[in-house]
Design goal:
Elements: H1 29-34, H2 40-62
Length: 63
């Protein structure tokens, strides 16, 4: 079950890569900007996409 109020994944490492993905929280620049106005459901979607990017990034680094 999803928690009702998603917390920002920001860890204050705000560095965007060439694809405009934050290397700290793995959100896109647009997702970071949209976070404050997003509904809880949209925030959960953002967190899911960020988690998938992190997992994909970890796989790339291991190769």
């Amino acid at each position: 079950m999803m928690e009702s109020k998603p917390k920002s994944p920001c860890i204050s490492v705000c560095v965007l890569d060439d694809s405009d993905i934050c290397m700290g929280c793995y959100r896109s620049a647009e997702e970071i900007t949209d976070w404050f106005m997003a509904s809880d459901e949209e925030k959960h979607d953002i967190l899911r996409r960020a988690r998938l990017r992190l997992q994909a990034s970890a796989r790339v680094r291991l190769k």
